[in-house]
Amino acid sequence: MSTPQWLPAWTRAEGAERVRALFAQTFADDGADGPVPGTPDGVWSAPGRVNLIGEHTDYNAGLCLPTALPHRTYVALRRREDDVVRIASAQTDEPWTVRLADVHPGAVHGWGSYVAGVAWALRDAGHNVRGFDAVIDSCVPFGASLSSSAAIECAFAVALDDVFGLGLGADDAGRAHLVAAARRAENEIAGAPTGGLDQSAALLCAQGQALLLDFRPGLDAAGFAQHVPFDLAAAGLNLLVIDTRAPHQLVDGQYADRRASCETAANYLGVRALREVAPADLDATLERLAPFDVEDSLRRRVRHVITEIARTGAFADLVRGGLGSGGTPDEAAAAGAGRLMDASHASLRDDYEVTVRETDLAVEASRAAGAIGARMTGGGFGGSTIALVRADEVEQVAAAVAAAFADAGLTAPAFLAAPPSAAAGRDV
Ligand code: GAF
């Protein structure tokens, strides 16, 4: 059997120490624009996320059910009085600099656009945000559909909120404004037409809880994001995350293509979003689309969205009803959750067509080795899968998946433990 490679999360103290050291090194000679050269105003961090279920539903006004990972992106930042942004990253040799006055849609490119975009969006919303010097370091794997981009955006959102005294970070209602800014950064400045799941998870999740997100327009903060206690470990279960290392990107055309199909179908059906189609009306709805859909792809996209929203509601009911709420493992609830995960993956593979060989293999190998359920998580086209596993079978499932990848001649996957962790916030 191949030995699984585990990707541990840094402790928050460790993450903070890393960015403080990098900040000192990057801005050591900068006595002119800081009271103490090489000293940041503070350290902030934001988590990656896994989505338990509810995929490609956010931009259809549907439901999603994420938890935050213990893996986080750390930012050490010092405010400036001018509008210059200077940033460096432990993950790249390319420092990045811009004047905030020059940031607008289409004008900036590269990794710094996720950072400058947040400052731009906050300023555009009327907040008095100025320039800053900052460094980042991260143990969220990049390009693994675990929201590394949102972790960057949201770590900066809470940092800028703090140093410029915006007062938005204290509760979910305030944080909704930070979610909006991070999302605009990604959509309008970085150019990825994503739906808001990732930024909401990074800013609103809580330790030991899953977050039920309802993307219907017009809901207040409490209606949009409900915290549901979720402690799999107490129920003798575990969530195993498998980064298949099949690279994934949201700025290429595939994600936008799926999103456009949903909008086209909603237009034909005369609804604002596919969420408005009741699951009981699914068959009749697909019939209505037939004349516009020679190749059947539009109907399959719609079927995925409608059934996935229903599966997410059912999964949330299982969590509310006791799955992962502690005490005796509830076999029936776990089996029900596993079936919903399996059905979600099949729908994403056959109807939405966003899985790849690596994610299908990770799911199949997880199940064959004893996982109760498994599915891809995130946008797809590569990236990661999750498996619901009995706690004493985690190593066996990981080893089996590693062996399946080795047998298939694929790059070795990486494994992450994923206890539901805390949202973005200040570390130091
Ligand atoms: C990506 C996007 F960023 C999210 O908005 C969401 O659509 C997800 O893919 C699919 O559920 O993570």
TrEMBL record:
EC number: 2.7.1.6
Domain GHMP kinase N-terminal, chain residue ranges per copy: 114-204
Residue ranges constituting the Galactokinase N-terminal domain according to the UniProt record: 39-79
Highest taxon, organism lineage: Bacteria
UniProt GO molecular function: ATP binding; galactokinase activity; metal ion binding
Pfam family, one: GHMP_kinases_C
SUPFAM superfamilies associated with the record: GHMP Kinase, C-terminal domain, Ribosomal protein S5 domain 2-like
A GO term from the CC aspect: cytosol
InterPro entries: Galactokinase, Galactokinase_CS, GalKase_N, GHMP_kinase_C_dom, GHMP_kinase_C_sf, GHMP_kinase_N_dom, Mevalonate/galactokinase, Ribosomal_Su5_D2-typ_SF
UniProt enzyme class: transferase
Keywords: ATP-binding, Carbohydrate metabolism, Galactose metabolism, Kinase, Magnesium, Metal-binding, Nucleotide-binding, Transferase
GO biological process, one term: galactose metabolic process
Record-linked Gene3D superfamilies: 3.30.230.10, GHMP kinase, C-terminal domain (3.30.70.890)
PROSITE patterns: GALACTOKINASE
Domain GHMP kinase C-terminal: 336-406
Record family assignment: Belongs to the GHMP kinase family. GalK subfamily.
Name the UniProt record assigns to this protein: Galactokinase
UniProt organism field: Xylanimonas ulmi
Upper taxonomic lineage: Bacteria, Bacillati, Actinomycetota, Actinomycetes, Micrococcales
